Amino acid sequence: MAMPDWQFSDPPNVAVIANQKIVLSGDWIAYVSHDGDDGAWQFHTNQSEPVSEDDAMMVSLQSIVTLDPTIIELADLPLGWHAWRSSKSSVWQRKIM
Predict the structure, then answer these.
(1) Which of 9, 51, 58, 64 has its CA 20 to 30 A from that of 23?
(2) Which DSSP string corresponds to 46-89?
């Protein structure tokens, strides 16, 4: 499947933080932050238990988009904002952090 034109201001190979369950187990992405202090992207699952650093891994932004193409909808998410959804098929909600 061909990827649409790259829409993020960050390059496809920029390192992002993702919950291991997204990358290794195929869990769906429920929460995304575009950190205002350093511009980092973070991708999290919809887990009820607290997240620890042990749950995180570094991957490329391209790999996240490949796993879940709906992330393209967040390419224009401003620094300091976050987005969330209640299910994999829900519309992304956005708000400043």
Answers:
(1) 9
(2) --SSPP-GGGEEEEEHHHHHHH-GGGGGGTTPPTTEEEE-SSTT
